[in-house]
Amino acid sequence: MTQILKTENLTKTYGQKTVVNGVSMTINKGDIYGFIGVNGAGKTSFMKMILGITFPTSGSIELFEGENILEARRKIGSLVETPSLYLNLSAKENLKNYCVEFGFDTNQIDGILQLVGLGDTGKMIVKKFSLGMKQRLGIAVALLNDPEFLVLDEPVNGLDPKGIKEIRELVIRLNQEKGVTFLISSHLLDELGKIATRYGIISKGVLVEELTLHELEEKCVKSVTIKTTENEKALEALRNAYPDVEIKLNDDHIVFMSSDYEVADLSKTMSENGAYVVEIRLTGTTQEDYFIERM
Length: 295
Description:
A six-stranded mixed β-sheet has the order 6-7-8-4-9-10, with helices on both faces. α9 crosses α10. α6 links the parallel β7 (149-153) and β8. The protein has helices at residues 43-51, 69-72, 91-102, 109-115, 131-142, 161-178, 189-193, 213-219, 231-241, 263-271, 287-294; strands spanning 3-14, 17-23, 26-28, 32-36, 58-63, 76-79, 149-153, 181-186, 198-203, 206-212, 223-228, 247-250, 253-256, 277-283. It has 295 residues and is α/β, with parallel strands linked by helices.
């Protein structure tokens, strides 16, 4: 699998304050990597080092499996903090200015505006855009160099639900249709959970965990914990009634590895087979709880 980004012990200090502390991260081609942490956890500082905006105090950055880092950064688009836009110009005029400044092909502008959902804004100046429209225009600017890797810092921060949905759909479309790999930072756990395929959790500058969506789902599986008067009979009855569910005996209680069934139905199944419920409760953790615990 092609690695887009690999860092080893990446560290950034300002005086006596360490804002990024020994971060070793791997992002593979095709990932939508959700970078999760509270405000001030070190997400933006990490991204700025990846982009060459600031320099690491120590550690290493490898892009596109060891390409020259200056050449590799030409394959990256980014939106970090507030997009720099010409407020008295239209969306198309903004992109033309950036194309002229950086030597990009102007023939792609109409296609990019369509891609980000701004193809019908015409001569409307950016000053009149909603915050969501401005964010999408910022992403359009980041797409002018046809990037393979897109770095977005809190792209839905401050947006209303409609704006958040627009950005989410755009990320998925770019990933699926154009094969763009993403590093997206956010403290909005629910939104990242709708699009991310891998996660990195950062707390006080330290990357405390990396995990895939599948690994996260396994850690957050909901279950029902049951204690009865006859656990062996209850276990046999439940396995016969629910053959597709993993059910196991753990010490003095049964763990029913699903929460998609009515508790009353489970209780009835067991009592009809001579096992009466002493205790029954939902267990497991939500994805939000899991992230919060580690942050």
